Amino acid sequence: MIAKLPLKEGAREAFLAAFEAMNSQVAQEAGTEIYILHFDRKDDNVAYIYELYRDVDSLRHHGGTDAMKDFQGEIGDLLGGLPELISLTPATGKGL
């Protein structure tokens, strides 16, 4: 999955802090294989989170955690638009 999150101007540092707080909990999720924050090279106000889960149950677990609920509450005022979630199915490549 890729989550695309448009940020308000000047919200990058606050967003990064909120992500880091949540990511410490994500590290404990057994079914969350990869969870990486990226920023767009051309637009500092666009964040992407690349996510890879062991299975659908792991994705559901992640989405229902208190850490995710807290993160969503913290970033609500930092977003400059609606998040976009892009679902992917890995096929082949390094790391699979």
Strand order of the largest sheet: 2-3-1-4
> Which strand-content bin applies to the residues?
25-35%
The CATH architecture designation is 2-Layer Sandwich
| Secondary-structure element series | EHEEHHE
Q: Helical amount among residues, as a percent range?
A: 25-40%
Q: What is the C-alpha radius of gyration, as a whole number of Å?
A: 13 Å
Determine the N-to-C terminus distance. Answer: 15 Å
Query: Within the CATH hierarchy, at the fold level, what is the topology?
Result: Alpha-Beta Plaits
Kindly name the structural category: alpha+beta
The biggest beta sheet reads: 4 strands, antiparallel
The chain-level mean pLDDT equals 95
The DSSP helix count reads 3
**CATH class, anyone?**
Alpha Beta
**Poorly predicted spans:** none
The shape is globular
* Strand count: 4
Number of separate domains: 1
